[in-house]
Design a protein that fits this description.
Number of helices: 25
Distance between the termini: 28 Å
Shape: elongated
Structural class: alpha+beta
Strand content: 15-25%
Amino acid sequence: MKEHIHPASPVSEADHNHTNHHHQQPGATSGEHSEHQDHSGGHGGHEGHGAARGQDDHAVHSHGQHAGHSTAMFKDRFWLTLALSVPVVFFSPMFAHLLGYMPPEFPGSAWIPPVLGTVIFLYGGQPFLRGGLSELKSRKPGMMLLIAMAISVAFVASWATSLRIGNFDLDFWWELALLVAIMLLGHWIEMRALGSAQGALDALAALLPDEAERITGAGLETVPVAALQAGDVVLVRSGARLPADGTVVDGQAEFDESMITGESKTVLRVAGDSVVAGTVATDNPVRVQVTAVGDDTALAGIQRLVAEAQASSSKAQALADRAAAFLFYFATIAGVITFIAWFLMGNLPEAVTRTVTVLVIACPHALGLAIPLVIAISTEQAARAGVLIKNRMALERMRTIDVVLFDKTGTLTEGEPALKDAVAAEGTTVEELLALAAAVESDSEHPVARAIVRAANAKGLQQPAATGFSSMTGRGVRATVDGRTVQVGGPALLRELGLTEPEWLSAATRAWMDRGAAVLHVVDEGRILGAVSLEDAIRWESRQAVQALQSRGVRVGMITGDAKQVADAVGSELNIDEVFAEVLPADKDKKVAELQSRGLKVAMVGDGVNDSPALARAEVGIAIGAGTDVAMESAGVILAGNDPRAVLSMVDLSKASYTKMWQNLVWATGYNIIAVPLAAGVLAFAGIVLSPAAGAVLMSVSTIVVALNAQLLRRVKLNPSEVR
């Protein structure tokens, strides 16, 4: 996936295809996934910039009902509220009456529920009170306002009962405590499922070193990266990370761009070539003239795209919020009508009792847990199938996806070259040709060399002994085999040796190159023995994934920076619906937006830093686990492995979980539609009145039903190998 952030000159000659060590192919697949080792000698790691925040304890969201609230805050308040709720519930007269026991009595025991209940209301209920006030000011009622209304009414009514004001029997302390505790638990569970934009930005910032070695007239000086200016020349040592975008002015080196492209195949950069901040010079020191620093670098540009895209994709409102808005208006109107009706009948005490009961039970526990429980179980089930769900909205949206856009290299393909074809000269067998090539390449660690050796070993070929191995940068490798000099390389090697492909060979190599394969010739003492082609192998799982998606009515697209002929060959073999080839990194985001402009909902599957804006822009961003940290931070879903069939698991899980969400919401809201009128006393003439205690019990039953229904999600089969 030669998707470099820097501008690259067009490749028109076959000899330029092998500048990567000696095997880089024309716009072809570049390599395998990196283990992402930090070669920067301590400068480019996370120490200088701060590692990405932990998602559990420090992710602070700036949208929706959780504005200004962190996951840790909900967690801490839940545990303390739960601890305080135990004595409140135990000493509550209403709860004791329901279960038929007598709580112990001692001086002050009657004040345990009011005192601890007040602490719970002020401490545990604070996020809901603030959130409710915010929703009220913005005139957008939701879950926070519904909860705030219920706990506030319960708090005032309970204190009136405890102080014996108005002779009411409205002891809701235990219900207040449990309502706050359960709602805190629900929001804690919910927020753990949310993604954090800050994590992606932190991971991007961590790619840059803290300091740079600037070359001056007096020699070298170590300066902070922030002190660099365009025009400065810096020394980038072997193994060091580039501090800024620039152009190589002296020397040449193989650059590891894995932290930018998601791939480990190194790329040769010589004088005049552009290089990008965050990449690593792996083998030689080079001098680089700085062309862009700070906010002008390509890396900073990607940061801005990620931030912008994630902000635009985080505004969706949860189903529970919409249901809560409906219930708020429903409960408020029902409460007003209840009070007026009973007041006009001349029964003020009953008017207050009925109204308070209506407003308190209008916020059932079930509604607060309906969505979080489904998300929590879905997340667990997905994890068992190798799918990590980071963003709750990704789960909801996946069922509506119209097109899945796959990054090619390392996702639909293996991400590393594999031997495809071989042609040998007359008098030489293909097996002999391959064994000889493997012998020469046996001492090389290059991915292409390993592919040749791996193919020879797979065929059980006996390789002759080779000595005197040497690499010819940009041309090939050579070694001595049985006293003869044997060389393996691309067209550049043939030109250097003054050799021309015979017609029997050129016909085959032209066809290989047309489909984007890398072509290597085997030359024995100046005689061309044959050639082999290497291509990025297509995963066999990819065929199943594409067919299964299409059978579900989902289109499949592929996006890559590879040359058109490479992309078309893969697209044709996999029967891809739409192929985007030769796409520059910054344009991946635009391609997603282009699909969206057609009215399509897009799921993007990628692995590199350059995929991050597209992952964040798509309705659902899916990062493969072997990709970079930034790609995983930007996505709403992460595949632990590289199996593209796991996307099917997400589709099936999304549909199943969405069904459970609606079932739970229908139950939670349906309970209210029935319970609220009964609590209001619409059937009082028939002797049917829902007491406050009975209403509280029904709320608990509703919660149990929701919890049991959510558990049924565990029956959904999500193993990618079983998805059809």
